[in-house]
Amino acid sequence: MHRDRQTFREWTLVIIMKTKISDLAIFGGRPLFTTTVHVGRPNIGDRQILLDRINRILDDRWFSNNGPCVREFEKRTADLLRVKHCIAMCNGTVALEIAIRALEMKGEVIVPSLTFIATAHALQWQEVTPVFCDIENGSCNIDPESVEKMITPRTTGIIGVHLWGRPCDIASLTRIARRYGLKLLFDAAHAFACTYNGHMIGNFGDAEVLSFHATKFVNTFEGGAVVTNNDDLAKKIRLMKNFGFSGYDNVIYIGTNGKMSEISAAMGLTSLDSLDDFIRVNRGNYERYEQRLKDIPGIELIRYDVGQNPNYQYVIVKVYKEKASLSRDDIVKTMHAENVLVRRYFYPGCHAMEPYRSYFPHAGLLLPNTETVLSQVVSLPTGTSVGIEDIDRICDMIQFIMHNTREIAARLADGQQRN
Fold first, then answer.
1. 194 and 157 share a domain?
2. In angstroms, how far is CA 145 from the centroid of its own chain?
3. Residue at a domain's end among 257, 273, 289
4. Helix or strand run (H / E) with residue 264
5. Is residue 1's pLDDT more than 50?
6. What are the E-state strand segments in 162-307?
7. 281 and 248 share a domain?
8. Per the domain annotation, does 419 fall within a domain?
9. How far apart are CA 416 and CA 397, in angstroms?
10. Which residues contact 249 (CB under 8 A, 6 or more apart)?
11. Treating both helix axes as pointing N-terminal to C-terminal, what angle do 262-273 and 68-81 enclose, rounded to 10 degrees?
């Protein structure tokens, strides 16, 4: 991991000072970084241990079909989360689809629009209608009051999302689900190894779905999982992710191919080996951003509740145009020109993407907090490939932009940016 950080800094060694507006790359100046700095560059862990595991896989010639690495990865994940069952999958989207089908969700299911599109697609793919509800302005998570307003006779479930690793209001959603007899599923793609009121995420609702995509701080190259304490549900999901096979030549249920490969599980095990290191680096990066950004006008860092044991995977800021005199999108455009690929999470919202914007053209009118947050938030680079020196340079750039917003806005309006 140290070698990975050092290599990245070698790529970005040239120091570029910005002292006047014309120094900005968007106006023809030299970019701050000589290569792109990403929000989610993959963590690797101990490269040699990973290669040793891959060599054992090659020697054993057991590449798929519930091999020893997958079984070990499932057990270690279940033990870490203190949950009874972990069923590893080829990716998080398939894990969502299988969990939705196993829970027999149909008709309408309530979800936030401020989430990755897969949360909605996993429903629509199976002809279940995602009904978009608003978020709480403070936490940016699904708003239980909005959920309750959206319930109709066709509603069969709720999918809560632990956005940016910050647990949503699980207690309120659980009460609502019980009151109306609804299934409750959580998309925990951002919240691996986090807690809620002293309990590990993964233990709530009927089931929770994890993502181990390459951009997640624990990754399996590409992968996901369903975790649950429900024995019958776990058994059903295991059948469904392997074509319905129960033993040799015995298919007893309809299913699909959702299996995780051995090489993916090997990467997952290597990530788990470095879990504490990854969180330590993430926390250090977050705290550096917190220190450097606290006095810059017009932006606000979305903070973690340290009592919920966060993984610090995401560094998110809100941009307030009324204070900054420069829109979030113009700031993103300016940073991109400097090779700092900050991101607008999850712009423009599921409700504004197809097919949903055609199905529900006026959904935004019911999502005022969602619409506001979607116009404000920016995700900043972090992870093991980003060093403190990189963060300082990024923060210096943000400070320079925010202290010159009026002139930058005027020049952008005049079309003076480089082509």
1. yes
2. 24
3. 273
4. helix 262-273
5. no
6. 183-187, 195-196, 199-200, 207-211, 224-228, 299-301
7. no
8. no
9. 19
10. none
11. 40
Q: Could you say which DSSP state residue 348 is in?
A: T
Q: Which residues lie across from 130 on neighbouring strands?
A: 109
- Confirm whether 177 is domain-assigned: yes
Average pLDDT over residues 52-75: 98
What is residue 220's predicted lDDT score, i.e. its pLDDT? Answer: 98
Residue 41 lies in a domain: no
Q: Which residue type does 389 have?
A: E
103 and 238 share a domain? yes
pLDDT score of 416: 58
Dist. CA 64–CA 71, nearest whole Å: 11
Section 210-235 average pLDDT: 98
Q: Which pLDDT score is estimated for 16?
A: 65
In the chain, the number of structural domains is 2
* Residue 104 structure tokens: 């027999």
pLDDT band at 414 (very low <50, low <70, confident <90, very high): confident
Minimal CA–CA distance to 217: which of 310, 140, 301, 300?
310
Statement to judge: residues 404 and 347 lie in one domain = yes
Residue type, 44: I
- Burial class from Cβ neighbours inside 10 Å (0-12, 13-18, 19+) for residue 392 reads middle
Are 90 and 167 in the same domain?
yes
Query: Averaged over 379-396, what is the pLDDT?
Result: 96
The pLDDT tens digits of the residues spanning 300-329 come to: 999 999 888 999 999 999 999 888 889 999
pTM of the model as a whole: 0.93
Question: Which residue type, as a one-letter code, is found at position 284?
Answer: G
Handedness of CA 170, 172, 178, 184 (dihedral sign): negative
Q: Within 13 Å and on the Cβ side, how many CA atoms surround 405?
A: 22
| Cβ-Cβ contacts under 8 Å for 112 (sequence gap 6 or more) | 119, 132, 133, 134, 135, 141, 142, 160, 161, 163, 370
Q: How far apart are CA 341 and CA 381, in angstroms?
A: 8
**Are residues 31 and 171 both part of a single domain?**
no
- Any domain includes 250: yes
Residues 398, 254 share a domain: no
Q: Give the residue numbers spanning the domain of 172.
A: 47-273
The reply to whether 261 and 283 lie within a common domain is: no
Last residue of a domain, one of 273, 294, 320: 273
pLDDT band at 417 (very low <50, low <70, confident <90, very high): low
Q: What type of residue is 188?
A: A
Place of tokens 């140290």: 2
